[in-house]
Design brief:
The protein has about 150 residues and is mainly beta. It is about 15% helix and about 45% strand. The chain contains three helices and nine strands. It has helices at about 65-70, 115-120, 140-145, and strands at about 1-10, 20-30, 35-40, 45-50, 55, 60-65, 75-90, 90-100, 105-110. It has a nine-stranded antiparallel beta sheet. The protein is globular and about 40 Å long. The two termini are about 25 Å apart.
Length: about 150
């Protein structure tokens, strides 16, 4: 189960280069349900995500690089490329996604939680912008189909 809240970010926090960064490339083979292939640095995954916005079922399985390269051209819609920074925030980690064109200058902060109660009680830092947890236009699957920033 994945439980997360999402927020737009208008300006990047200072000192971002100090934090771990991962290069992500992903394509959706299907968007209902969401079936995605992803490269995160040099690791490869096939992911199933169920319906939902705040919480949803998620299953991730490893892929070989060869399988990933075979499946990626079969993606429906645009392939998403982004840099993900991992910023510690109390007991949580903020995953800050900085998207490349055609989605740039989109920047989204995601925070995952063990329970919906903890997610709902979360107070975001001041540098977070508008919350988009419940706006399906900001799911990566929807972005890939639209091919552009919402």
């Amino acid at each position: 189960m994945e439980i997360e809240r999402k927020f737009l970010v208008d300006s990047l926090p200072e000192g971002l280069e100090r934090y771990p960064r991962r290069r992500i490339e992903q394509g959706y083979l299907c968007t209902k349900p969401a079936i995605r292939v992803r490269r995160k640095d040099e690791a490869y995954f096939l992911t199933y995500k169920g319906e939902g916005l705040l919480s949803r079922e998620e299953h991730e399985m490893p892929l070989t690089g060869e399988a990933y390269r075979h499946l990626l051209p079969k993606a429906d819609g645009a392939v998403i490329r982004k840099d993900r920074y991992e910023l510690p925030f109390g007991e949580r980690v903020i995953e800050l996604d900085v998207f490349e064109p055609p989605f740039a200058p989109l920047t989204v902060a995601e925070v995952e939680f063990p329970t919906e109660e903890e997610a709902k009680a979360f107070t975001p830092p001041a540098w977070f912008g508008r919350e988009v947890t419940y706006d399906p236009a900001y799911t990566n699957a929807r972005l890939s189909r639209a091919g552009k920033m919402p």
